[in-house]
Amino acid sequence: METGRYPNSSNPYRPKGQVLRDARMWWNSTRNDGFGVLIALGFLLLLAMILVWDTVRAEQRQRVQAERTDHVITLLHEIIEHTTSAESGQRGYFITTDRRYLAPYETARKAYRTTLDQLKTFTADDPQAISQDLVAQIGKLTETKFGELEESVTLIARGEAEVARTRILTGKGLQTMEQLRAAVTRFENIEREQLLYASERAASAEARIVPGLVLMFLMILAVLALGMWQVRRLIDAEVRAAHADELAEARDRADLLSRELNHRIKNLFAVVLAIVRMSGRGDPDAKPALDRVATRISALLNAHELTQSGGAAAGAHLGKLIETAVAPYRSDAHKCDIAGPELILSDAHALPLGLVLHELATNAVKYGAWSQPGGLVKVQWTIADDQEATVTWEEHCSFTPPDHPADERVGFGTKLAESSARQLQGTIERSYAAHGLVLRLVFPAGQLPEPEAED
């Protein structure tokens, strides 16, 4: 009689219903674990999309407000220009009684109502009551001013210049003009305050996006580690199966789940990269920061692919990880010497170490040994008896590198490298020799791989 066909079914005499119940519980547990990981990844992706979308919306609101403010101020200035031109024409006509001087007046009288209508239409949907009151006040004062001008022009045309002079000297027209300018100035200040508020909101959203995305990616890595742990727990359970064929079947299922999870993780990285790059379209100011975020995400993806290239439990070779980090920049003009013993890193070591190497290679191209032809970068590592690994990054510039003051400002890349060193449970030391940067990263290497036994 055949023994149990599922894990923990070693009793060959159990009822068939009990065997089916055990199999169903085992399958539901495996499926729920995988669904939990995918739900967590989906939730983190949703948070990242919300963060990017909030930033894009803030920038869109800023652009809309800038266009609105510019248009409103232009209309307000046109109203003042129309009123001033009309008043100048009226004064010229009053002094000379030559109707040719009324040309600016006639032009402004025909145009000011159109400008007022445009202002009222453009601000009709403004929710602020004070803005609506100011528009109404500006319209009333403009109508009053043009009414006063038209009245004086009519009196002059009838030959009653003295009556027109008396009314001009009352100062009502001057008072109306001062009130109109005050209302226009107040409206301009309100529009500029709204533009400043929208700009501050956009700047605040842009300041949140980089650390927010980095935090999301770290959380994604934590969920990935949890998923790997669940996969390995499933493999351990299958190892204890009674028959070799059942063990092979269980390993196939675990490997399929691992490949599916890795496939979804890489798709997730690709989606996040696409979101980041799309966020920079149409906004040249935000593009450099988003490009730096994209390159760091690519470095994480490269490190992840190295840890999974040889199977679910293969890990990443330190030498291969270093070669991958420097490969985009390495050439005859930008040389790199890599040397060290065999060392296989776990996922927890490979991912943050890949970020550190990416930052070092990028900075070498921008400011260090690879910023000019003929530079050399030496990367060496050693392993102490207590399983402590020391990685040394040493740059030899073909030129005299600039001095680095002790109070030099710490940039985001340096903070990211220090944060990655803490994830490695190690330390990072940076110094500057006559030939360039020297950086040492010390961290516990953990259990080294044992040599494979010969057949």
UniProtKB/TrEMBL annotation:
* Reactions accelerated catalytically: ATP + protein L-histidine = ADP + protein N-phospho-L-histidine
Under the heading SMART domains, the entry gives: HWE_HK
State if ATP-binding is listed as a keyword. yes
Keywords in UniProt for this one?
ATP-binding, Kinase, Membrane, Nucleotide-binding, Phosphoprotein, Transferase, Transmembrane, Transmembrane helix
Entries under Pfam families matching the protein: CHASE3, HWE_HK
Signal transduction histidine kinase HWE region domain mapped to chain residues: 260-342
What is the protein name stated in its UniProt record?
histidine kinase
The upper taxonomy is:
Bacteria, Pseudomonadati, Pseudomonadota, Alphaproteobacteria, Sphingomonadales
